Here is the input.
Amino acid sequence: MHYVKFLIQESILFGLIIIVNYFYDIHLGPPFTKVDVLASIICLPILGYLLFLAFTLFKRFDSLSLKSKIILSIINFTIIAFMIGIIFSSVV
Here is the structure.
């Protein structure tokens, strides 16, 4: 049951991180303008908070070994990235 809880919570966090990064990347362009600075000011604290939540998630599940958490995270990140890519039609 701990594995399922870990995977669900991590799926939500990884999905949010990928989505925020996807929309953040749209606003960045080669000429660095005020829009780029504003997008960075808005998105970087959001990404920082989501990464903080991911690290606290790792600490919450101390009963799982570090090896299993890393393996589950890699598999979970790959699946979530693929699913979000299909949803945004970036991966065919």
Summary: The longest helix spans residues 34-60. DSSP finds three helices and no strands in the chain. The chain has a mean pLDDT of 85. The helical segments are 2-27, 34-60, 66-87.
